[in-house]
Structure prediction request, 429 residues.
Amino acid sequence: MRILHLDEESKQNLLADLLKRDPNNYSQYEDTVQEIIQAVRERKDEALFAYTERFDGATVNAANIRVTDAEIEAALAMVDPKLLDVMKKAMENIRAYHEKQKRYSWFDSSENGTILGQKITPLSSIGVYVPGGKAAYPSTVLMNIIPAKVAGVKRIAMVTPPGKDGSVNPVTLVAAHLAGVTEVYKVGGAQAIAALAFGTESIPRVSKIVGPGNIFVALAKKAVYGHVSIDSIAGPSEILVLADDSANPRYVAADLLSQAEHDELASAILVTTSMDLAKKVSAEIDGFLETLSRRSIIEKSLENYGYILVTDSLDEAIAAANDIASEHMEIVTRNPFEVMTRIENAGAIFLGEYSSEPLGDYFAGPNHVLPTNGTAKFFSPLSVDDYVKKSSIIYYSREALAPVHEEIETFANAEQLTAHANSIHVRFE
Prediction:
């Protein structure tokens, strides 16, 4: 794994390199995505079924596109009971964490006859996209559905690509059932996003779409934003480990590889004050690669977006971490809690040598749907807030409005909005 001494030039080159992974840079696929979306919007089920057969090799129709109770029961019988127990424990942790995020409506009244407040309303419906294919991602299912249930969303529709035999991965299906999904449809890709956004004969439209997917799914979510809400346009996974010479190199190497194995565009970065640690971590990575099953993916990921950055001071290391604004950040220093207070930009922060990133992926409770590609500078993890909307509440009695009505009219007239001013004025003629 390459080792660089970090200076301003190398940092800027690194940031530019990482931004190449942004889904917004894949404009060559936008015309294809727009074509799919338009076809589904116009021809609805007909286009949806045709694209599913073309891209997934599965024959779906109005009679079988929605997963049945019998299919869910069959899936439950196929899942390892030990995995089922683990999922249930993880669910409790996820639910408990997100319960603490709940917001409530509030109202503030005063003696002069005003009531101001904020009304919290759950979204009426959401669509959850879950990647399909050979891999199963039950953790992603739980992370997207449970906060919606906590928020009070009544309709939760999940879409996921079917296998060639028209089936849904049983582990994915069981996770959705346990989490509280209301309906599951056997469709994926940009065509599934279009169906959720605009509706078809088989899939009613939703208010918001969440969940990760490939570049076609990401671009489709971007394209339908405004017709529906979306959570974010997710990019490839990334991890940054911030460490000093007290860190265990074997642990650090293992944690970097935990994200590099996602795909060839994943990013794994170590920022450290210790050249000795840097060399030891690099050596440990070489050793792990001899045994890991996804070696070819990891090697390409590290070749493209893997870095060990050595700084002259902890201050420089922290500044670099804030500039990179990683999706996952591990702090493995003598005093990780003190360092954490100086971190401004990160999706999720893991403290100490026993808080490795997979703990957050699967079990701890905080959401693992996180901002990528530096967007942690202005975005937050998926939360209960993503599944509610807020309405402002305003009430003034005549007695409360009387002392201020002329001031409001003055403001409106200053903007030459005389009808605004008149709306206040007529009440005191």
